[in-house]
Design a protein that fits this description.
Number of domains of chain A: 2
Radius of gyration of chain A: 25 Å
Strand content of chain A: under 5%
Helix content of chain A: over 70%
Number of domains of chain B: 2
Number of helices of chain A: 14
Structural class of chain B: alpha/beta
CATH class of the largest domain in chain A: Mainly Alpha
Oligomer: heterodimer
Number of strands of chain A: 0
CATH architecture of the largest domain in chain A: Orthogonal Bundle
Largest sheet of chain A: none
Largest interface: A-B, 35 and 35 residues
Shape of chain B: globular
Helix content of chain B: 40-55%
Distance between the termini of chain B: 68 Å
CATH superfamily of the largest domain in chain A: MetI-like
Distance between the termini of chain A: 50 Å
Number of helices of chain B: 18
Chain lengths: 296, 438
């Protein structure tokens, strides 16, 4: 039936048809829930009752005024710090594995594999590694003769429990960052390096003056992923420490879930989610501002 | 380049449309599944046989359960036996994990199975969703009648009860040279010391996992205060947690056990699944948990006769005390197949044998438990405390203050200055109480 219509109408049909479906999906499953979230954040809904009392800004006041809620953000700093190290390591491995190295595909695979593993499985796996009395890490340290170190409570020490958890994230996501860097490195034309070699540049100079500027956009992307990842950490502490010891590894997302599903304060939890969203936007704007104009 | 972009676009569009198909299918499926009970209930009515009383009850009944492990095993047997008795009923089981959260969402959507376990909502809201169950004619008096009741009507029937005490490995006690079971707190400490000297971890606290600490929040304060309404009483006070009341004393016991080294070597790195094996093998000596854990320890390799159970001596009076706690409560969806739901609840309590399978104290007061460990426990003739029916006031304050009591116990035990921890909690409590205008 379409074949009789003029070409232009057919074209419009196809365009509208193809655009409408994904738009509809996007609106129902992304934008509508997001708007509803913002709506809920102004209510004191308990998650069940049909009426959702409007209470204005008081949920937001509570989020910022209560140190027990906003204060957990400092736990996320560890993930951010380790995330930076993770990116540096990823660039290093990407550069190494981009050179003429024997068995480089094997090493690439090896480093990328942890990313494929399921997050919950990884958490349980590391539960056995970091166990104080039966854990493989402490056993290894004991075998090497570090007797004092081998009794470390990796997940039970308030000062570094977040770094222990973040190191698992390092293990898991470094390969993923590396693959992205690797793709960027391969798109740099080889003749630039050749020209630099002829001019007498050494490896480090080539890295600073050619490699880095060329992958600047990608570094930005990876930092974006690291920052959002650091702000939204959830599965590792949720499974490994339950936020302990004494709440020192609780993250903001865990707090949101607790607020909604344990204490039935859905309104407050929605407000916390909106705040998290704004926080990500702010941090990213700062990052964009600082890196602006470079690598263009 | 253009080609690549259009190809990518096309594949993204295809993917999303395919996803839409998937989502659409799932939706229609669940719709038809949930619509079924009502429509079939209507069509099934005229044609059915069976006994006179049971024949009146017809239709589909769906039970939402948390026991994913029983699907296609015990439940298949239950279904067969139940449908033999009630030929007009088609019984179905639906098992989900993360029960409470999922059920609440489904209740909020207005469409949920006929028989469920009551979610954690205030009793005042029970009549909005569930049918009163007072007219079920049980063969005898039942426990926990008043706990899920509102304005004199009962909306929940407990699936069974449990008590809390010391679950211990008899072989480990033998090895440590403990001849008589401790009847006072001092004797308990002495026994723990003996276990420790024998290289056995005296008490497995499973500190890290938080939930095992609930006994220190709910049960031990009951024993210390000699009353089970301590959680409700908190609503009357601005400082519900003090060092010299039931909470401070209860948590003080755990703190003492911790400082004396009677808990796991590193309480922040405990492993629940492993601890069951260690109790079974005698590497750990005791649990302070409900009797439900006994069957699980036996499943993990202990001989049934090696596992014992006695009341926890919380003081030096020598008088045995124990709480009697309900497990999940059955409730019947008032918008569902109520008659069949009630029949199913009665059948679960009286005939299914679920209480013995789960290691519960039967809900029917006259029925004896088949668990030998409970017989041992009862030989101490403990004074049982049934829980007080909960008041919403305390729960509201607790939710408003976002107070996780098990987490407070952790902080109390680990902190250098427990008083400071209590002060912090009391401040939050008082503020929440004031905000709610109570």
């Amino acid at each position: 039936m379409f074949s009789r219509l003029p070409f232009k109408t057919q074209k419009n049909f196809v365009i509208v048809g193809f655009v409408a479906l994904p738009l509809l999906l996007l609106l129902t499953f992304a934008y509508y829930p997001a708007l509803e979230l913002i709506h809920l954040s102004f209510t004191s809904w308990d998650g069940l009752s049909p009426n959702k009392p409007w209470i204005g800004w008081s949920n937001y006041k509570e989020v910022f005024a209560n140190p027990a809620i906003f204060g957990v953000f400092k736990h996320n700093f560890a993930y951010f710090a380790v995330g930076i190290v993770q990116n540096i390591a990823a660039i290093y491995f990407a550069v190494v594995l981009n050179s003429k190295l024997k068995g480089k595909n094997f090493f690439r695979l090896l480093l990328f594999l942890p990313y494929i593993l399921n997050g919950v499985a990884v958490a349980y796996l590391f539960g056995y590694v970091f166990d104080t009395t039966n854990g493989s890490l402490n056993y290894l340290l004991g075998q090497f003769g570090f007797d004092a170190l081998s009794k470390t409570s990796w997940l039970g020490n308030e000062t570094f429990v977040n770094y222990t958890l973040a190191s698992i994230g390092f293990w898991r996501f470094m390969g993923f960052n590396m693959v992205i860097y690797l793709a960027a490195l391969q798109s740099i034309p080889a003749d630039i390096y050749e020209a630099a070699s002829i001019d007498g540049a050494n490896g480090w100079q080539k890295f600073i003056s050619i490699t880095l500027p060329n992958i600047y956009k990608i570094i930005e992307l990876n930092l974006f992923l690291t920052v959002t990842g650091a702000l939204e950490v959830f599965d590792l502490p949720y499974i490994l420490t339950k936020g302990g010891p004494a709440g020192s590894s609780e993250t903001f997302v865990m707090k949101i879930i607790e607020t909604a599903f344990q204490f039935n304060n859905y309104g407050l939890a929605s407000a916390m989610s909106v705040v998290l969203l704004l926080f990500v936007v702010i941090v990213l704007s700062i990052q964009r501002f600082l890196l602006k104009g470079k690598g263009e | 380049m253009k080609k690549v972009i259009s190809l990518a676009l096309a594949s993204v569009v295809m993917l999303t449309t395919l996803a839409a198909c998937g989502a659409g299918n799932a939706n229609t499926n669940s719709n038809s599944a949930s619509n079924k009970p009502s429509s079939e209930a209507a069509t099934n009515k005229p044609e059915n046989g069976g006994t006179e009383e049971a024949a009146k009850i017809t239709g589909d009944v769906v039970f939402l359960t948390n026991r994913t492990d029983m699907i296609d095993k015990q439940y298949a047997d239950y279904e067969k036996r139940f449908e033999e008795k009630y030929p007009g009923v088609d019984l179905k089981f639906e098992a989900i994990t993360d029960y409470d959260k999922t059920l609440k969402i489904r209740i909020a959507s207005g469409d949920f199975p006929d028989v469920v376990f009551t979610p954690t909502i205030p009793n005042a809201e029970l009549p909005n969703y569930f049918a009163p169950l007072d007219d079920i004619a049980f063969s005898g008096d039942i426990h926990f009648k008043d706990l899920k009741a509102q304005e004199g009507k009962m909306y929940g029937v407990s699936s069974g009860g449990s008590t809390v005490g010391i679950v211990y490995n008899k072989k480990a006690f033998e090895k440590a040279g403990i001849t008589a079971l401790p009847k006072t707190y001092d004797e308990f400490l002495a026994a723990s010391q003996k276990l420790k000297d024998a290289g056995i971890v005296p008490l497995a606290s499973n500190f890290k996992d938080k939930w095992p600490l609930d006994t220190w929040v709910y049960d031990i304060p009951t024993l210390i205060g000699g009353a089970s309404d301590h959680q409700n009483k908190r609503a009357e006070s601005d400082t519900p947690y003090t060092l010299d009341n039931a909470y401070g004393k209860s948590w003080g016991i755990l703190r003492e056990l911790y400082t004396k080294g009677f808990l796991e070597a590193d309480v922040n790195s405990t492993n629940w699944e492993q601890s069951k094996k260690d109790i079974a093998s005698g590497k750990f000596g005791m649990y302070l948990l409900g009797n439900w854990v006994i069957n699980q320890v036996i499943e993990n390799g202990a001989a049934a006769e090696d596992i014992g159970f006695f009341p926890f001596p919380s003081d030096n009076s020598g008088e045995a005390k124990a709480p009697l706690n309900p497990d999940f409560f059955y409730a019947v969806n008032k918008g569902g197949n109520v008659e069949a739901g009630k029949a199913f609840v009665q059948w679960m309590i009286e005939e299914s044998g679920y209480d013995d399978f789960a290691g519960f104290i039967p809900t029917l007061k006259a029925k004896e438990s088949k668990l030998p460990q409970l017989a041992e426990f009862n030989s101490f003739s403990p004074k049982f405390f049934e829980p007080a029916s909960p008041l919403d006031a305390a729960t509201q304050i607790q939710n408003k203050a976002q107070l996780d009591q098990a987490a407070v116990v952790q902080e109390f035990v680990l902190s250098k200055d427990p008083q400071k921890v209590l002060d912090k909690v009391n401040t939050a409590w008082a503020k929440a109480k004031k905000d709610l205008g109570q």
